[in-house]
Amino acid sequence: MRIDIWSDVVCPWCWIGKHRFERGLALLGDKAPEIEVHWHPFLLAPDADETPVPLREAYAAKFGGVERTNQMLAQTQSTAQAEGLPMDFDQGQVKVTTLPAHRLLWLAGREGVQAPVGEALFRAHFAQGRNLADPQVLADAAAAGGIPAERVQALLASDEGMDEVRAGLGQAQALGIQSVPTFVINGRYAVQGAQPPEVFAEVLAKVAAELAPAPAQDEQACGPDGCSI
């Protein structure tokens, strides 16, 4: 079963949603389908560049002041920590472009290690407050998937992966994806947002049932059209 996930590595609900999806899959136990996950890019701040801006400052300008920002971040952090995620908005997070991080995730996809690299990027931003436009931070995240630092340096020194990331952003636009996370299951069902694990489990079970082969016909049976001989 193919799972396509549109996400940004500075989206707190994307990190929460990732873990809720994994819990939903675990709820199915032995009935869980085999899945193939593909992560796709989305830019929450397409105007951002590599100049770091304090996240609280950027959010205050966007969401209507310091008090509103502090309340919003506290609620999100509380939800994440209840999920067992070490999200901490007092670590000095900054707003920067995530294009380099998405290029790294594209490379990780080619190497078959998107899951550990993506998790490392989420943790670098939300738990450690590291700058995701910093080449060293990207190299450290890549190491979680066994990608050598030299390979990351070569990637960032070129335009490699840029066309593919731009294509992924265009695909999100073509599909009408305006918020993340968005999970597209087997190209047929879309689940938006960090839904409860039970919702993911229900959708996965439904798709798995649709993919199950029809039971074999008993050769010694009768139906509306007669009996087999």
Question: How does the SSE layout of this entry go?
Answer:
Elements: E1 2-7, H1 12-27, E2 36-41, E3 53-54, H2 55-63, H3 66-82, E4 94-95, H4 99-111, H5 114-126, H6 135-143, H7 149-156, H8 162-174, E5 182-185, E6 189-192, H9 197-211, E7 222-223, E8 226-227
Parallel strand pairs: 1-2
Antiparallel strand pairs: 1-5, 3-4, 5-6, 7-8
Helix pairs in contact: 1-3, 1-9, 2-3, 4-5, 5-6, 6-7
InterPro entries: DSBA-like_thioredoxin_dom, Thioredoxin-like_sf
Pfam family, one: DSBA
Protein name: DsbA family oxidoreductase
Notes on the structure:
This protein is an alpha+beta fold and 229 residues long. The protein has one domain (2-211): Glutaredoxin (3-Layer(aba) Sandwich), CATH 3.40.30. Helices cover 49% and strands 12% of the residues. The protein is built from nine helices and eight strands. It has helices at 12-27, 55-63, 66-82, 99-111, 114-126, 135-143, 149-156, 162-174, 197-211; strands spanning 2-7, 36-41, 53-54, 94-95, 182-185, 189-192, 222-223, 226-227. A four-stranded mixed beta sheet has the order 2-1-5-6, with helices on both faces. Helix 1 links the parallel strand 1 and strand 2. Helix 1 (12-27) packs parallel to helix 3 (66-82), helix 1 (12-27) packs across helix 9 (197-211) and helix 5 crosses helix 6 (135-143). The longest helix is centred in the N-terminal third of the chain and has 17 residues, at 66-82. It is globular. The chain starts with a strand and ends with a strand. The mean pLDDT is 93.
